[in-house]
């Protein structure tokens, strides 16, 4: 089996996969995405943005990342690879 991710993601989701299957693995990935969004917010605050602006930017970046992943998962049928 080939994965485009390094060994880290496989190790991270091994136990949740064993306990709850795909649902457990998806929960771990959602938690990681939420933590990354929080870190983007904190980076915005540390860079000098007020709370509202940092929040809007963090949510916008997280949403853009989600739409890019969705687009890339279906695009090989129509477009060159997104990797």
Explain what the structure shows.
By secondary structure, the protein is mostly helical. The chain has two helices and no strands. It has helices at residues 7-46, 51-74. Helix 1 packs antiparallel against helix 2. The model is unreliable at 74-80 (pLDDT under 50).
Task: Give a short overview.
The chain is built from two helices and no strands. The chain has 83 residues and is mainly α.
Quote the average pLDDT. 80
Main sheet specs: none
Radius of gyration equals: 16 Å
Number of helices: 2
List the uncertain runs. Answer: 74-80
Q: Percentage of helical residues?
A: over 70%
- Please state roughly what percent of the residues sit in beta strands, choosing from under 5%, 5-15%, 15-25%, 25-35%, 35-45% or over 45%: under 5%
Write the element-wise H/E pattern from the N-terminal end onward. Answer: HH
Please provide the count of β strands: 0
Q: N- to C-terminal separation? A: 18 Å
């Amino acid at each position: 089996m080939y994965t485009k991710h390094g060994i880290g993601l496989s190790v991270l989701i091994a136990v949740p996969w064993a306990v709850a299957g795909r649902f457990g693995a998806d929960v771990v990935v959602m938690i990681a995405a939420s933590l990354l969004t929080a870190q983007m917010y904190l980076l915005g605050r540390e860079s000098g943005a007020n709370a509202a602006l940092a929040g809007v930017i963090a949510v916008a970046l997280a949403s853009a990342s989600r739409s890019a992943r969705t687009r890339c998962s279906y695009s090989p049928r129509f477009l060159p690879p997104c990797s």
